[in-house]
Amino acid sequence: MWKAAITELLATAFYVLTLTTIITSILDSNVVEPKLLVPLAIFLILFLFLMMTVPLSGGHMSPVLTFIAALRGLITLARAAIYVLAQCAASLALATVTGRAGYRGVGLNPAKCLGPALLQGDRLWDGHWVAGLGPFLLALLIMVTLCTYQRRVQIWKKKRSMIF
């Protein structure tokens, strides 16, 4: 389990560093329309990191994805807690080591902006609860919806098989 946790820590750190560096350089460049380059860069980076980390730890690299895996029963709560701790530590260490507290938005990865929010404080920290709580509530809502839908489909199939 510790090898997987270290994999999550390093993968999250390098993923956030690579992503932040590339997006910052694209947005700060003289390219007239960087709108197509940003999602393409995110896709390529995420694809490469997933190819490397899925066999080792599941390739979560985000507390939200770890939370979803724990809700689905794919990993234990203890493993999920260790992964989330590693992911948040990676963000904090990265923001501390690089000395850059760039804040380019959180997306669905609250760990990405935890380090900058802790270092800069003030308005970033004041609004960080939204970035932290929002994706988790969304994941919980999706899980409840999926479970309800799956139960209804099973009931419908059962009733249908009784008719025929």
Can you offer a commentary on this structure?
By secondary structure, the chain is mainly α. The protein has one domain: Up-down Bundle (Glycerol uptake facilitator protein). It is 81% helix and 0% strand. It has 6 helices and no strands. Helix 1 packs antiparallel against helix 2, helix 3 (63-72) packs parallel to helix 6 and helix 5 (110-120) runs antiparallel to helix 6. The longest helix is centred in the last third of the chain and has 42 residues, at 122-163. It is globular, with a radius of gyration of 19 Å. The mean pLDDT is 78.
The tally of beta strands, per DSSP, is 0
Number of helices: 6
| The first-level CATH class name | Mainly Alpha
- Helix- and strand-based class? mainly alpha
Annotated CATH architecture? Up-down Bundle
Helical content band: over 70%
Please report the distance between the alpha carbons of the first and last residues.
Answer: 49 Å
| Overall radius of gyration | 19 Å
Order of helices and strands: HHHHHH
Determine the strand fraction and express it as a percent band. under 5%
Shape: globular
InterPro entries: Aquaporin-like, MIP
GO molecular function, one term: channel activity
Subcellular location: Membrane
Keywords: Membrane, Transmembrane, Transmembrane helix, Transport
Concise overview:
The radius of gyration is 19 Å and the shape is globular. The chain is mostly helical. 26% of the residues are buried.
